[in-house]
Amino acid sequence: MGTQDASRVKVPRRAIPSWRIVSSAVKAHNLSALAVGGFLGTCILLTFLLGTAGVLELGFIYTNWGTLWGPAWTSLVLTVTSFLLGLALATPLGVVRAYAPAIFRRTREEKKAGASRAGRRRAVGERSSRRARGTIRKALLAPAYGLATGYIEAIRGTPFYVQMWIVFYLISLIWPRLPNLFFIIGLVALTLSTVGYQAEVLRAGFQSVGQGQIDAAKAVGMRGRQIFAHVTLPQGLRLVVLPLTNEWIGLFKTTSILNFISVQELMFQAQELGGPQAHPIEAFLMVAVMYFAILMPLSRVVTYIERKKRIPGLGTPMDVTRAAARRRAGVTV
Question: The pTM is what?
Answer without folding.
Answer: 0.75
